[in-house]
Amino acid sequence: MEKKSTKTCRICLLETEQYYFLNNDNKLMLQFKLLDLLPQIDLNIPPNPIACNGCIITIEKIYAFKQLCIQTELIMRNLRQPGAIKEELHGNNIKVEPSNLKIISDDCLEINTDVPVCVEEPSKTELYHCYNCDFDTNKKTSLIRHLIHKKVNVQHTGEKPFKCNVCDYCSTTLSYLKTHMRKHTGEKPFKCNICDYCGTTRSHLKSHMSKHTGKRPFKCNICHYCGTTKSSLKIHMHKHTDEKPFKCTTCDYCSITMSDLKRHMRKHTGEKPFKCDICDYCSTVKSSLKIHMHKHTDKKPFKCNICDYCSTTMSHLKTHMRKHTGEKPFKCNICDYCGSTMSHLKSHMSNHTGKKPFKCSVCEYCSTTLSYLKTHMRKHTGEKPFKCSLCNYSSNQSGNLKIHMFQHGGVKPFKCNICDYCGTTMSDLKRHMFKHTGEKPFKCNLCDYCSTIMSHFKTHMLKHTGEKPFKCNICIYCSTTKSSLKRHMRKHDGEKIFK
């Protein structure tokens, strides 16, 4: 409760010193309750309206009374259905279903839980069943309590009376709605007493605490997997059964979790709900937004313990560490190729399949990855987004800018372990190493030509094909290399470089 100078209550228009803000008090959900009772009220007039203690108590009572009426109506509908209750008689392991339990007619039914809803005749009844679900009991009073329970009754009818006034969410109970509202308000009341973690639900906090305690009580009976929650174990079990119960209605995609399906559906709808509040960036995944926010804060929490590399994500750091360890876990099942990342392997597989799904809309260029196509498109647009902060240099690739920056710093990080050679790129070092090994990996399958450089090999192959891709736009001259074309162009310009 906030205590301030006297203000006018939005509801009764009386002056009060003790009040609650209707739009901001998310704990009591006053705004939701008031709009539920009186949707015509405009809580934007005046700005940030308040309610006095007396009106708050009245709102709570009326809202509770309305919910009671709703639940009673659901109970009455349920009990009016014929066969809402069934019973079974067990004797000598023989199952008999006598018709000795009668439903009271509507004329005799009163809204009073003390009045029995069934008339029982003397019998050997042992078990009562609910026709709407799998609930059973040996006590009729327990069955009646089951039928009038709020949560159970809503499950029977399928109704979700508690609606969010911000989005389309509906729930069966007020407690679920309160938990949902924390997504809009950002409230995280459940705090860890060991670290800075805060959660929106108690179950989330319990799951988090297992990181500190190491407790994983939910164990798989097939493998060694242990989970912190029952739901995580259920998801894990789908891996053994190969079950993917959540299916896309548009394509053939199936997933083992609803959250994965929701993320997939955004590809069809184009929805990007996770928006940056600083720039125009939007994402389909919350984790991508978190990574993006590091760009604004310049925060790179994941650091390499060998070199100066820092990353915004743990996955990027793991990929980087493979440069130091030489690990290449992604192996091709056709040839001996091994890659350090899955994307590298996918790109390699196109060499076997010949598949290049990403096509340029301007020319005939095709690529194996979307990132390659984006880089290629900058040739048509002339865009060079990667600019040097020290000179006028700009490039259409981030890798080129990194190499350029080494020239300013005089840095050559890639060193030969045999001689004193240092290179600015890993590819430079690899080419240099061929001098020590004598290896020439690029071999022509038509003649004996071998080369240590891919570009030289490509130029050589043009001799066999007769292709001359570099054409003069003034005369009919064609060349197999770009350097030859440049030399030719000087004739048109009258330029004499070598004096």
Mind explaining what this structure looks like?
By secondary structure, the protein is α+β, with helices and mostly antiparallel strands. Among the domains are: 179 residues, no CATH class; 80 residues, Double Stranded RNA Binding Domain (2-Layer Sandwich), CATH 3.30.160; 52 residues, Classic Zinc Finger (Double Stranded RNA Binding Domain). The protein has 16 helices and 33 strands. The strands form 15 sheets. Strands 5-4-8-9 form a four-stranded antiparallel sheet, covered by helices on one side. A three-stranded antiparallel sheet has the order 1-2-3. α1 packs across α2 and α2 crosses α4. About 9% of the residues have low confidence.
List key phrases describing it.
Double Stranded RNA Binding Domain, three-stranded antiparallel β-sheet, 16 helices, 499 residues, four-stranded antiparallel β-sheet, alpha+beta
